[in-house]
Amino acid sequence: MTDVAEMMVEKTAVSPTPTAVITQASEVSNTSEVFYYLLAERERLLLEVDPKARQQTRQFSLPLPDTGNSGPEGLAFVVNADIAAYGFLGLPPSNNGGYFVVSVQADGVFYVLDVGETAVLVTQFTLPEIVEDAAGLDYQAGVLWVSVAKAAQLMAVDVTGREPQLLDSYAYKRLPDEAGDTEGILLLPSREAAILADDDGRQLSRYNDFPACMADRRCKLAWLLDVEPLEPSGLAWDESRQWVVGVADEGELFYFDIDGSEPKLLLQLNGDLEGITIVIR
């Protein structure tokens, strides 16, 4: 299979000129506004939160099947600048700055949504290697990272072409703590690190030299946090504030630094929160 770590370095070297209203986190200017988008599973909602005001600003009903407590779990955002640089499932740039990707736990289906005044389903896809429990998503430079909790696998999926292709797969059992029920995955390529959210174990952990260390079983635990009673799931990186933001099952939106500080509550919401991504307008 393709060496994903090498592929990420190659892709990161591309410096596309942004053409969209929504930009990447590294392109924040004084006039940019950062918004968090949270995925509520049972309610099938996308919640928009203004972290500066610490309040929810909008919500969108998602045109997804009702699968109860095995519903939408993973959330990622593909910005127009990346679509121009790498391609994304053969789609043109969005008038709304990019596309959201939502993964559903019950059947492993991935839905691509264009969100403006409403959430519109653009396309969907599956992968033969993922039949259920696509619980966590992160997108980095043409690669969609998928945490498959029940199978205890982290999968790297190339989404630059019209059809997604599996690049590589890593077993969480290669990690010292085995990352039991990993429903959240955040990659920090500039730091060659990853932070994992273990829902059942109520733990957050960080590994350096990631994902390269997974290939030869040399991953070392940088830190491990017990965050009881939080049941952490989705994670995202807020470049403007230099903190990791996460969501938990009982509606908590929280944040902490990459060195493993104790999580602090940013906002308490209603809903079974499972995924989070960051959009800059």
Describe the protein's architecture and organization.
The strands form five sheets. The chain has a four-stranded antiparallel sheet, with no helix packed on it. A four-stranded antiparallel sheet has the order 4-5-6-7. Strands 8-9-10-11 form a four-stranded antiparallel sheet, with no helix packed on it. The chain has helices spanning 4-12, 80-86, 212-215, and strands at 34-40, 45-50, 55-61, 72-79, 98-104, 110-115, 119-125, 134-140, 143-148, 153-158, 165-171, 182-188, 193-198, 203-208, 221-226, 232-238, 243-248, 252-256, 264-268, 273-280. The termini are far apart. The chain has 281 residues and is mainly beta. The model is unreliable at 4-29 (pLDDT under 50). The longest helix has 9 residues, at 4-12. Helices cover 7% and strands 46% of the residues. It is globular, with a radius of gyration of 17 Å.
Q: Would you summarize the structure shown here?
A:
With 281 residues, the protein is mostly beta strands.
List the helices and strands and how they pair.
Blueprint: H1 4-12, E1 34-40, E2 45-50, E3 55-61, E4 72-79, H2 80-86, E5 98-104, E6 110-115, E7 119-125, E8 134-140, E9 143-148, E10 153-158, E11 165-171, E12 182-188, E13 193-198, E14 203-208, H3 212-215, E15 221-226, E16 232-238, E17 243-248, E18 252-256, E19 264-268, E20 273-280
Mean pLDDT over the residues: 86
For the secondary structure, the number of strands is 20
Name the shape in a single word: globular
> Approximately how much helix is present in the residues?
under 10%
Structural class of the helices, strands and pairings?
Answer: mainly beta
Strand order of the largest sheet: 3-2-1-20
End-to-end CA span: 36 Å
Rg of Cα set: 17 Å
Largest sheet: 4 strands, antiparallel
> Segments where pLDDT lies below 50 for 5+ residues?
4-29
Strand-residue fraction?
A: over 45%
Series of secondary-structure elements, N-terminal to C-terminal: HEEEEHEEEEEEEEEEHEEEEEE
